[in-house]
Each structure stands twice: as structure tokens, then as C-alpha cells.
Amino acid sequence: MDQMNLKKVVVIGHSLGGAVAMLFALKYPEMVEKLILVAPCPVDGLPTPTENLPYLALYKTSRTLLKRSIRGLLPTLKDKKFLEALADDALKMNPDSIYPHVEELGKFNVVDLVKNNFVPTIIVFGDMDPLLTYSQMEKTAKTLGAKLAVLNGVGHTPFVEKTDLFVQIIEDFLGGA
Prior knowledge:
The chain is an alpha/beta fold. The chain has helices at 16-27, 53-59, 63-73, 80-91, 98-107, 134-144, 158-161, 163-174, and strands spanning 9-14, 32-38, 121-126, 147-151. It folds into two domains: 1-46 and 109-177, 3-Layer(aba) Sandwich (Rossmann fold); 47-107, no CATH class. The chain is globular, with a radius of gyration of 17 Å.
């Protein structure tokens, strides 16, 4: 940001990136104009049940299983070519990073770090998200003092599943940008 001479920016983070965005905003609030969290890790973490861990190992080698998992995250996605591209991209991820990501999501907790007057924040969440619950997002919004926008009939990636509505929500939050 210094090299680009940016003083304040709008930060957006999705899923695990939501945790990263929250940490950035907590560490550098003077640099964050507004924070947009899309289906973010909850403020008190997202533990993965131990019995699910063996399935994660299969994602490293089974394109079919990986594609089904992605499909579950995007219940309204109709574009089969896009689904194939997502699976291809996911298989490029370093397989040794899967468990550390899951472990970090389980340990994530910023509840005690949030102060009054946190940066202006919106959370966009799909009510069909298979990873997150409404109560987790409600707690996250309350902890951060954020606005919560719930999209009906949408999974874990509102910006893919209902792009136009997602853009409208973000534009409204940003003040008609």
C-alpha cells in the first residue's frame, strides 16, 4: 500500500480470506476504510470435526470428489465449464496446505481483539451455505458491529451464485460506488 501511495482501502475477504481480512483490519484499522466479509470464517473459528479429516485427504487425489465438494458449496451454479475450471484450480493448490488451513480455521478467534468502533463492516452470507450457520454469522456481525446481508437460496459463494444482487449490496454499502 505504501508503494502505491494508498492511505485507506476497502478490504474484501471470502471464507478463509475473511479471517485474513479481519486480522488485517484489526491490526491496521487506520488503513481500512470499509471491510467486506463474504461467507467469512466466524469470529470464534470454524473447527472441522475429526471424522471429516480423512475426506479432506481424498480431495488431494480425487477430482470427482473435489468437484462434488465444490458443487455442494455452489448449489445454484449452472455453468458446468466454470465448475470444471474451479476443480482444475483447486487441484493446483499445494496438497500439504489443506490440513494447515483447516487447523488455522479451527484455532481462529478474534472475539477478544475487537474494540468498539471497529471499521464499518458488512457480512454477506448465503442461507444455503453448507459450511456456515446463520447463528455463526449473526454472532460475527454482532461482535464486529457489522451489517449482515443474507442472500436466500445461495451457498458459500454469493458473488458467483447471485452476482448482480451481490454487486448491488456491495455498491449500496460503499455508498453507490
